[in-house]
Design a protein that fits this description.
Length: about 260
């Protein structure tokens, strides 16, 4: 594992209404109060309609959980029916925004250009952007995945002012591992972490964290974090239950405490 403080983000996707979301955060908060995860930054990326109530409970109970959104529109306001702006999210204390998740790229026509504009809007609003990159299976199999993620990185970060570099985190999320139950191996994750860090350094993103997402769960988190030099995880399915998400947080916390 790297010497950086781990970051673990739960991406609820289109799951849990606000009542269910409240319940989950309450349970998670209690687990974290009983045995704190001292060395991990914890974020939940809830659906838009859950954010208000999740934000209230996190604040009133003083849970050490930051709020994230799964997407945002790059425009400040105006005729964008169905969309949400960064300033709306800021009002709800949202500090993190996932940008360019593969599901948005694939199913909601999120082009490289929109990814770049969205990332710029997020960091200019003072929020942390979690840029998702990753290849599909055919690209992994024909061994052009380095070129693929480099192109995604180059496009998304193009022209971003240096003063915003600290607000960028990169999530390596190979599509073949997302929601499939087949996670990338520690070796595969380590290889991509090293590669992405070098690419980020070259672009003067020297403090950017690199996290991994794709079928991370309570069984594989400990070995992935210990063996792959990754800075944390973006967790989908396993973030929907307090116990499994907490187990992932524990794995990162224990590993960091030992390795530091
Ligand atoms: P998964 O999703 O953990 O369910 O594979 C990860 C993600 O899409 O961010």
């Amino acid at each position: 594992m790297s010497a950086r403080r781990p970051l673990v983000i739960g991406n609820w996707k289109m799951n849990l209404d606000f009542v269910e979301g409240l319940h989950l955060v309450q349970q998670l908060g209690v687990l974290m109060k009983n045995r704190p995860v001292e060395h991990v930054d914890v974020v939940v990326a809830a659906p838009f309609v859950d954010l208000r109530s999740v934000s209230s409970i996190v604040e009133s109970e003083r849970f050490a959980i930051a709020l994230g959104a799964q997407h945002v529109n790059a425009h400040e306001n105006g005729p964008h029916t169905g969309e949400i702006s960064t300033s709306m999210l800021k009002r709800l204390n949202v500090e993190w925004v996932i940008v360019g998740h593969s599901e948005r790229r694939m199913h909601y026509a999120m082009s490289e250009e929109i990814v770049r504009e969205t990332l710029a809007a997020v960091v200019r609003a003072g929020q942390h952007a979690v840029l998702c990159v990753g290849e599909e299976l055919s690209i992994r199999e024909n061994a052009t995945y380095h070129e693929h993620v480099t192109a995604q990185l180059t496009s998304a970060l193009h022209g971003l002012e240096e003063r915003f570099h600290d607000l960028v985190t990169v999530a390596y999320e190979p599509l073949w591992a997302i929601g499939t139950g087949v996670n990338a191996t520690s070796d595969q994750v380590r290889e991509m972490t090293t590669f992405l860090r070098a690419e980020l350094h070259e672009r003067s993103f020297t403090s950017a964290k690199v996290i991994y997402g794709g079928s991370v769960n309570s069984d594989n988190a400990a070995s992935l974090i210990a063996e792959s030099d990754i800075d944390g995880f973006l967790v989908g399915g396993a973030s929907l239950k307090a116990e499994s998400f907490y187990a992932i947080l524990r794995a990162c916390d224990d590993c960091y405490a030992v390795k530091r």
